[in-house]
């Protein structure tokens, strides 16, 4: 029971990170029907940007409690901006021209982009693990039984709160603003949306920016939580977040968050109760099983074959 | 009626400059943190930031100049109307026909040419790193071409079958029980000498079996989903190979895999070795040359079989499946079996290539079967032009050979200092090439389809009409 | 009209539901051998759904579709066959197939029911001839010993392939496409594509050919040629036809038997003459609510 509660807390934290990345996959798939393979690497870049920012601020302001908080805040905001810029540039350079072309082309281009980004970071920042000094190590003890302490750390609280807040803002934008309406219109029919005066290019660009901003939140949280990042950190979290998006029903925003939570929980429970070695095997297996047996996901719409 | 040539508008330099400044500003935003500051660890494990303003401004400057030049080039080409290359299609078929023949001829004399120019010690590198390496990818490309190019099933996990082939051979050849059994039944030298030739077909069959096994559950999937599931399968196989240490040796892999013999004559310095048997002076080059011809023959078998398959009902059904699955079903084609044969035959060639890879290296580990390999093989097929055998050859030479050439650019150290290692940019350039190739030629280098049967005249089909399948 | 004396297809109580929507409701009709049977009705009446059920692309919610080869008595055998788990029965007189039990490709390969599509589905990147060769996949596959004989270059396969090319040539001449044989199917004009799809379906040697709006988008001359082609398929090849059509001039001109659907339900069934004068049909097409209104409309239009 104690282990269970503790893993639940850990799983939700991890799930928040996956959910945030998954939204980027699901939105882009919804609007232009492509798997943005480079999204995981965009997430990795955001963690690097946050790392550099955090180090720059703490180098100037020291490592006191207030300075760390300030550094995290700056890192989050700067990372959201820079990552959005990356995502915008990727869309503009590598995808826009291929929209409506041969269907494999954007996917191949995205895979190339993923390789490019990963190796760019490796060349620019080195191949070694990049740690940050331990921060916010304090925890709140929830209860204790037979010597096993169930605790929630400040980091975890922060991650869950920030995720919830940003998801709220994001939800409002997508549901209640003209921008969100334009996005949903482009999802249905880009040509018609263009005829009705919607700037399709801009709407798609904004979609990429929004996805990247949320991935940047995830990246900053990831860095805070694990305290280390390396250039190859985009691939596996990227695949897991994609799994989350598919599990929730690709194209569905609440589905992405739900899927992220489920994947986070499955991963932590799998590691706790079965085998930590096979945790990635479990993630990939879930991906395959979901795609094969319920490709519409939990909250997606089933697809009817048209003859 | 004569069309009057449209008067070319003067190049708008102010606009170009604006674009270039904008691009430079974006580049500054992108790179000021990622390039401008480098995270480094000091000797006592402290993380520090090292500013690199010089690098940052060089890159931003390059973006500025690059954007300006691209804009200028676009502006001066803006008025020209591209001709539709209808006349070029028969030519493309001719190139395919004679180009392939000429290339095969060249390959047969290639080792001798290199040997003559570079001498025995210098030739190993050119035959092994370039010849054999490229031929392995050509073979893998031709194998994957059956699945992706012909049947239109997008497979991102092809490296799994390469791994199955490699591990099948490695495990069988190094297995003590098999060795003992063979020693008891035939003789102690039999198995180490003949293991490769016996295991090669076994590896192919096992890979084909895995192709069917992994292909079966994904038959209903289409498009990107199929790609992602195959990627997941590829990763699962690799992760199992890493974690199941008792079976596969885990990260450490399998070493001292027997090398192929010259049909029973080993390549070593002993008296019964190849050099002694044929009265030659011992050098390791003979083994390399022999391996070159083995992979050349294997690749040619792949090419001949896939060319023939295209002209058989099963090959035509693959292509029809790529064009329209529902129409196929309405014509009585069992699409399940058709897809599975494509998976199985494609996987089989991957398995052959894998067994050869294990035999050539003498050592394998899961590191050789990462997703990047799948991406690389797929890039070769797509860049070559789906379905074109010659295209795969050209793409392999460009991608594998080009990247391999980077290792040879040591002279650049004279300009950039001793710390400059061009090889570390290999994958960076590879990724950029994939993107640029898609932007430039999304249909691949050779983008015409050759009909499998004709009545009067063989006309090439423009790739604009060819569908890419649902995967 | 041979639906009663010599049926080839008997559809009984066919119902197809999609979620809450009833696309086809308890439809029963018979198509006669050697007849051209037309299935007509306003847009959304469920005609294409019926086609998709007959050709195996949809599994009907309930209902039975019995097709016969030869002279086997449908009524005498169909109940017994339904009680077995089999999808067909064969005796000296012929074979009886239950189409609702067969996967789509078996409907074509075994029951010999071919079809065309409303939105043409050609293999557009393959040549016209290749399209017709794909249609002969199954016999060629047998001739190539399931690829092995073909791969080794056995003579039997090459002979069979020549025969297949001859069959293709025959249908290309018949559909006036012989000059375009080596052109990609996607390059053909619309009317040619429609004919090519019919030629391709005929290359599977069907006993029943289902055409989904074959005249859609054709000009009047092409429409006339199509009529001649369909008649020739019926008369020269003994293939029965089932067609969905909106063009009444085609329907009334060539059909032997007309079935009218509205909102998934059969409202009329008979010869073209009978159907034309059926008040229910007129009401369905003109949108009248009840009989009285129909009479009123008839008076107005001068019937």
Topology (SSEs and partners):
The complex is a heterotrimer of chains A (307), B (471) and C (303).
Chain A: H1 2-32, H2 39-61, H3 65-95, H4 104-125, E1 130-131, E2 139-145, E3 148-153, H5 154-176, H6 178-188, H7 190-195, H8 200-226, E4 228-229, H9 235-248, H10 253-273, H11 279-293
Antiparallel strand pairs in A: 1-4, 2-3
Helix pairs in contact in A: 1-5, 1-8, 1-9, 1-10, 2-3, 2-4, 2-8, 2-9, 3-8, 5-6, 5-8, 6-8, 9-10, 9-11, 10-11
Chain B: H1 13-34, E1 37-41, E2 47-51, H2 53-77, H3 88-150, H4 159-174, H5 176-185, H6 190-215, H7 223-243, H8 245-248, H9 274-277, H10 285-310, H11 313-323, H12 325-330, H13 335-361, H14 371-384, H15 389-405, H16 413-416, H17 426-440, E3 448-449, E4 461-462
Antiparallel strand pairs in B: 1-2, 3-4
Helix pairs in contact in B: 1-2, 3-10, 3-13, 3-14, 3-15, 4-6, 4-7, 4-13, 6-13, 10-11, 10-13, 11-13, 14-15
Chain C: E1 7-18, E2 21-32, E3 36-40, H1 47-54, E4 62-70, H2 74-83, E5 88-91, E6 94-98, H3 104-109, E7 113-115, H4 128-135, H5 137-143, H6 148-152, H7 155-174, H8 190-202, E8 208-212, H9 220-237, E9 240-244, H10 248-254, E10 257-262, E11 265-270, H11 272-276, H12 279-286, H13 291-301
Parallel strand pairs in C: 3-9, 3-10, 7-8, 8-9
Antiparallel strand pairs in C: 1-2, 1-4, 4-6, 5-6, 10-11
What does this structure look like?
The complex is a heterotrimer of chains A (307), B (471) and C (303). Chain A is mainly alpha-helical and 307 residues long. Chain A contains 11 helices and 4 strands; from the N terminus they run ααααβββααααβααα. Chain A has a single domain (2-293), classed as ABC transporter involved in vitamin B12 uptake, BtuC (Orthogonal Bundle), CATH 1.10.3470. In chain A, strands 1-4 form a two-stranded antiparallel ribbon. In chain A, strands 2-3 form a two-stranded antiparallel sheet. In chain A, helix 6 (178-188) packs across helix 8 (200-226). In chain B, a hairpin with a 5-residue loop joins strand 1 and strand 2 (47-51). A two-stranded antiparallel ribbon of chain B has the order 1-2. Chain B is mainly α. Chain B has helices at 13-34, 53-77, 88-150, 159-174, 176-185, 190-215, 223-243, 245-248, 274-277, 285-310, 313-323, 325-330, 335-361, 371-384, 389-405, 413-416, 426-440; strands at 37-41, 47-51, 448-449, 461-462. Chain B has 2 domains: 13-77; 99-408 and 441-462, no CATH class. Chain B is built from 17 helices and 4 strands. Chain C is α/β, with parallel strands linked by helices. In chain C, 42% of the residues lie in helices and 24% in strands. Chain C has helices spanning 47-54, 74-83, 104-109, 128-135, 137-143, 148-152, 155-174, 190-202, 220-237, 248-254, 272-276, 279-286, 291-301, and strands spanning 7-18, 21-32, 36-40, 62-70, 88-91, 94-98, 113-115, 208-212, 240-244, 257-262, 265-270. In chain C, the strands form 2 sheets. Chain C has a 6-stranded mixed β-sheet, with helices on both faces. In chain C, a hairpin with a 2-residue loop joins strand 1 (7-18) and strand 2 (21-32). The longest helix of chain C is centred in the middle third of the chain and has 20 residues, at 155-174. The mean pLDDT of chain C is 89. Classes of the chains: A mainly alpha (307), B mainly alpha (471), C alpha/beta (303). Chains in contact: A-B, A-C, B-C. Chains A and B meet through helix 2, helix 3, helix 4, strand 1 and helix 9 of A and helix 1, strand 1, strand 2, helix 7 and helix 14 of B.
């Amino acid at each position: 029971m104690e282990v269970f509660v503790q893993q639940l807390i850990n799983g939700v934290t991890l799930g928040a990170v996956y959910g945030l990345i998954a939204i980027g996959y699901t939105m882009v798939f919804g609007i232009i029907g492509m798997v943005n393979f480079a999204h995981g690497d965009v997430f990795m870049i955001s963690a690097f940007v946050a790392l550099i920012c955090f180090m720059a601020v703490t180098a100037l302001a020291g490592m006191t409690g207030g300075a760390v908080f300030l550094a995290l805040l700056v890192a989050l905001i700067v990372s959201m901006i820079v990552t959005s810029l990356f995502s915008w540039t990727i869309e503009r350079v590598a995808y826009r021209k291929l929209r409506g072309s041969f269907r494999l082309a954007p996917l191949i281009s995205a895979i190339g982009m993923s390789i490019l980004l990963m190796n760019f970071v490796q060349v620019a920042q080195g191949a070694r693990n990049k740690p940050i000094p331990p921060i916010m190590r304090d925890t709140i003890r929830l209860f204790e039984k037979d010597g096993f302490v169930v605790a929630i750390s400040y980091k975890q609280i922060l991650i869950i709160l920030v995720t919830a807040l940003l998801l709220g803002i994001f939800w409002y934008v997508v549901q209640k603003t003209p921008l969100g309406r334009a996005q949903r219109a482009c999802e249905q029919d880009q040509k018609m949306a263009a005829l009705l005066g919607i700037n399709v290019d801009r709407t798609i660009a904004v979609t990429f920016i929004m996805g990247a901003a949320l991935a940047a939140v995830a990246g900053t949280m990831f860095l805070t939580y694990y305290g280390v990042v390396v250039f190859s950190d985009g691939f596996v979290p990227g695949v897991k977040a994609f799994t989350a998006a598919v599990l929730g029903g690709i194209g569905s925003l609440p589905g992405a968050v739900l899927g992220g939570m489920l994947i986070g929980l499955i991963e932590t429970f799998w590691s706790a109760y079965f085998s930590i070695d096979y945790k990635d095997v479990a993630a990939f297996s879930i991906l395959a099983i979901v795609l094969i047996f319920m490709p519409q996901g939990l909250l997606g719409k089933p697809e009817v074959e048209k003859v | 009626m004569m069309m009057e040539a449209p008067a070319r508008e003067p190049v708008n330099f102010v606009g170009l400059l604006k674009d270039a400044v904008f691009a430079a500003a974006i580049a500054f935003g992108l790179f000021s943190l990622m390039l401008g500051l480098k995270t480094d660890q000091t000797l006592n494990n402290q993380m520090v930031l090292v500013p690199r303003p010089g690098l940052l401004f060089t890159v931003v400057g390059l973006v500025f100049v690059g954007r300006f030049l691209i804009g200028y080039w676009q502006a001066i080409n803006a008025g020209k109307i591209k001709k539709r290359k209808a006349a070029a299609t028969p030519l493309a078929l001719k190139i395919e026909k004679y180009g392939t023949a000429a290339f095969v001829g060249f390959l047969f004399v290639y080792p001798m040419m290199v040997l003559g120019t570079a001498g025995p010690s210098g030739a190993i590198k050119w035959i092994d790193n370039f010849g054999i390496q490229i031929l392995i990818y050509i073979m893998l490309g031709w194998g994957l071409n059956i699945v992706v190019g012909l049947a239109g099933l997008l497979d991102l996990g092809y490296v799994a079958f390469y791994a199955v082939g490699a591990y099948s051979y490695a495990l069988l050849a190094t297995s003590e029980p098999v060795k003992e059994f063979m020693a008891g039944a035939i003789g102690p030298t039999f198995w180490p000498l003949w293991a490769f030739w016996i295991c090669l077909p076994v590896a192919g069959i096992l890979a084909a079996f895995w192709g069917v096994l992994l292909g079966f559950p994904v038959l209903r999937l289409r498009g990107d989903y199929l790609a992602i599931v195959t990627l997941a399968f590829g990763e699962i196989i690799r992760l199992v190979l890493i974690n199941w240490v008792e079976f596969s040796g885990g990260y450490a892999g399998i070493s001292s895999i027997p090398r192929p013999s010259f049909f029973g004559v080993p390549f070593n310095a002993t008296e019964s070795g190849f050099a002694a048997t044929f009265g030659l002076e011992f050098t390791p080059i003979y083994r390399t040359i022999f391996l070159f011809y083995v992979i050349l023959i294997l690749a040619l078998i792949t090419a001949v079989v896939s060319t023939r398959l295209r002209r058989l009902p099963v090959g035509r059904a693959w292509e029809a499946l790529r064009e329209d699955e529902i129409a196929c079903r309405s014509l009585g084609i069992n699409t399940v079996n058709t897809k599975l044969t494509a998976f199985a035959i494609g996987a089989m060639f991957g398995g052959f290539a894998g067994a050869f890879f294990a035999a050539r290296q003498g050592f394998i580990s899961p590191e050789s079967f990462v997703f990047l390999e799948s991406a690389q093989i797929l890039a070769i097929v797509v860049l070559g032009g789906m379905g074109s055998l010659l295209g795969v050859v050209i793409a392999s030479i460009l991608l594998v050979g080009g990247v391999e050439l980077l290792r040879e650019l040591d002279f650049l150290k004279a300009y950039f200092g001793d710390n400059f290692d061009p090889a570390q940019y290999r994958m960076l350039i590879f990724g950029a090439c994939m993107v640029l190739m898609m932007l430039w030629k999304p249909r691949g280098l050779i983008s015409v389809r050759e009909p499998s049967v004709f009545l009067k005249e063989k006309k090439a089909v423009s790739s604009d009409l060819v569908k890419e399948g649902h995967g | 009209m041979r639906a009663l004396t010599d049926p080839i297809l008997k559809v009984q109580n066919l119902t197809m539901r999609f979620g809450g929507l009833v696309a086809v409701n308890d439809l029963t009709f018979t198509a006669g051998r050697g007849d051209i049977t037309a299935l007509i009705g306003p847009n959304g009446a469920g005609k294409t759904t019926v086609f998709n059920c007959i050709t195996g692309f949809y599994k009907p919610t309930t209902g039975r579709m019995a097709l016969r080869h030869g002279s086997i008595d449908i009524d005498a055998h169909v109940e017994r066959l339904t009680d077995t788990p089999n999808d067909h029965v064969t005796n000296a007189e012929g074979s009886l197939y239950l189409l609702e039990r067969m996967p789509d490709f078996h409907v074509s390969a075994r029951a010999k029911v071919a079809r065309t599509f409303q939105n043409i589905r050609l293999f557009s990147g393959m040549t016209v001839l290749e399209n017709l060769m794909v249609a002969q996949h199954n016999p060629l596959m047998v001739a190539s010993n399931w690829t092995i004989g073909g791969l080794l270059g056995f003579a039997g396969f090459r002979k069979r392939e020549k025969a297949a090319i001859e069959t293709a040539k025959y249908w290309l001449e018949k559909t006036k496409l012989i000059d375009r044989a080596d052109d990609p199917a996607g390059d053909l004009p619309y009317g040619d594509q429609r004919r090519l799809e019919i030629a391709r379906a005929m290359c599977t040697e069907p006993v029943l050919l289902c055409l989904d709006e074959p005249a859609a988008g054709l000009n009047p001359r092409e429409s006339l040629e199509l009529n001649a082609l369909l008649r020739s398929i019926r008369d020269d090849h003994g293939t029965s036809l089932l067609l969905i059509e909106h063009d009444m001039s085609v329907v009334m001109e060539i059909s032997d038997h007309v079935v009218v659907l509205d909102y998934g339900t059969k409202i009329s069934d008979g010869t073209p003459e009978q159907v034309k004068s059926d008040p229910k049909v007129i009401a369905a097409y003109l949108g009248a609510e009840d009989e009285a209104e129909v009479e009123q409309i008839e008076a107005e239009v001068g019937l």
